[in-house]
Amino acid sequence: MVRTRTQTNQNPQEPALANVVAMLQQQLLQQQEEMNRLREQIARLNQMPRANEIPPQDNPAPPVVPKYQRKRVLCASFALKKDARHWWITVQMRRNVAAMSWQDFVAEFKTMYYNNEILAAQQDEFNSLKQGSMTVLEAIKKFEQLGRLCPELIPNEKEKVRRMMKMFRTDIAKQVSAGSSPPTLVSDCISRVIRAEYWINQDKEVRAQIFKAKKGPN
C-alpha cells in the first residue's frame, strides 16, 4: 500500500515573511520620496549664486558670503536632529511649503534656530564651559559640540588649545601645563589630559585604600 501525504498547511513563517517584505517595500517608498525632496532642494541650491562666481557685468549681484554658508550648514546639522520635525509641522500648518523657495526656507530656519538670542546663548555657554564633574572625554565632547556652533571663538589651533585647557579641572590642567613644553596642538592636549586624569584617579584610589587601612574595621 502506497501512502501519500498532501501538504495543506502553509509554512508558519510565510505570513511573517510577507509582512517583512511589505514593510521593506514601504520603507523603500519612503526613502524614494525623501530622495526626491533632497534632489529638489539641491536643484534650488544649485540655482543660487556661488561664493566665487563672477556675476555678469550687465547685471551684477552680490556674492554669497562663504562664512554664512558655513554657519548655515553647521547650525542645521545640529538643530535639525532634535526638533526639526515638530518645527516643520508648524511651518506646514501656516503656509504652503510646496511653493516655498530655498530662500524662504532659509528665512524660516534662521528665525527659528539661528536668531541673535540663540547665538548669544551658545557663545555664553561655550565661554563658561567647565569640566566640573564630567570626565575628560565627556568634557571634550561637549567642547567640540559648542565649538562647532561658535567657530568664530576658536579661529585657530592655538586658541582652541587655550580654551580647552581653561575648561579642564585645575588639578588636570596644572599637571598637563607643567614643565617647559605645554601642549600646542589639540591632539597632544587631548592625549595628555587623558593620561593626567588616569594617574590622578589612580592616586585617589591609592590614598583611599591607605586611609581605609589606617582607619581599620568598624
TrEMBL record:
Species whose genome carries this gene: Ficus carica (Common fig)
Annotated protein name in UniProt: Retrotransposon gag domain-containing protein
Pfam families on file: Retrotrans_gag (PF03732)
Keyword Coiled coil: yes
InterPro entries from the UniProt entry: Retrotrans_gag_dom
Annotated coiled-coil segments of the chain: 21-48
Keyword annotations of the record: Coiled coil
The Retrotransposon gag domain, residue ranges: 76-166
